[in-house]
Amino acid sequence: MILRKRQKGAFEGPYAIRPGFFKPGLIVEFDKSLRSMLSYPKMTQAIIAIAKNFINLLYPLHCATCNRTLDALNKLGVCDFCLSQIKPHPEPCCQKTGLYFKRAYSACLYDGVLKELIHLFKYKKKLALGGALSGLMEDFIRDNHEIMYDLDIITFVPLHSRRLRQRGFNQSNMLASSLSKEFDISIRDILEKPISTRHQNELSRGQRLTNLKNVFKIRDGTSVKGLRILLIDDVMTTGATLSECAKALLSNGAKEVRCLALARGL
What we know:
This protein is an alpha/beta fold. It is built from nine helices and nine strands. The strands form three sheets. Strands 3-4-9-8-5 form a five-stranded mixed beta sheet.
């Protein structure tokens, strides 16, 4: 049956609403009742769970790497099996001579499932994977408390402005922001890369060490004097990128630079 408009929002028919039925007080009471229901966290979580399960029936979630069907409440976009295939790095702390950072940590080994996840995150813009990737770094930090000991700020490896426009985001910034929020340490956008260079993954080991020489600088008006800084990147290979960033920070008065990468190859 088509309901025909009668007056002041009322309609004719068996479900007609009488004029004046929705009194202001009744609406207020309904609003209070709804807010009261949603003020209980367990009830809110239950409603969200039901909604997500319903949506998952229509549009099932799938693992980013193996395409297995995921539970509706999965927040990571990756199944438990694939996560279990990610390997911790056997030598997580790097203290290479000839590099500017004091030490660099790597949470995981850069191969297999993790390599594919990072590729999807960076180059296919699967930004929902950021939670799973930053979670790996968070777990690593909890097992290595010295990383955050007496730390002042967190910062990240910058991208050249053209590459940032092309990609639309800085993956290292996203990872650093998650760590900042999780461990309640302020994040600052300190470094910039005014010179465009070739991709590091296109170069030999020797070329990587020279490709980024003196290309990073501190942003104008920024002070890092006396600060202990944690520098974040997604992947570490030779350590050249992190070393050149650390060089810029230390030459401008930073007291110490520690580095943390999500992944590193053997």
